[in-house]
Specification:
- By secondary structure, this protein is an all-alpha fold.
- It is about 65% helix and about 0% strand.
- The protein has one domain.
Length: about 110
């Protein structure tokens, strides 16, 4: 997600709007992949600007979306090159869970 895609919510709510302010407008929210990271940040009440920074800042993006290093996936990746099919996880599930949790906790601790 770049500034173009993330700026829609910022234009609507303002960069300083918090997750809880945004979530008040919805009865139900569902998300997958990068959207679930955004939803997690909204639930943690991060500002929209902070959330957008996770996708714009390359170091933060790489911490979250780090390639999987599983030997099994490396074998699958080798096979995919020749079969021209997409199978298996591209990114590490552990990194997609742990990197945002660490960052969200730091932000939460700074607000208290």
């Amino acid at each position: 997600m770049g500034a173009d895609r993330g700026s829609g919510a910022i234009k609507l709510y303002g960069a300083a709007a918090t997750g809880h302010q945004v979530l008040r407008d919805f009865d139900l929210v569902a998300a997958t992949s990068g959207g679930s990271l955004v939803l997690g940040g909204l639930v943690e009440n991060l500002s929209l600007n902070d959330l957008l920074s996770y996708f714009e800042d390359e170091a933060k993006r790489r911490a979250i979306f780090s390639p999987t290093h599983s030997p099994l996936y490396r074998f699958i990746e080798f096979i995919e090159k020749f079969a021209k099919i997409g199978v298996g996880p591209k990114y590490s599930a552990d990194a997609k869970l742990l990197a945002p949790l660490r960052s969200f906790r730091r932000k939460r601790g700074a607000r208290r």
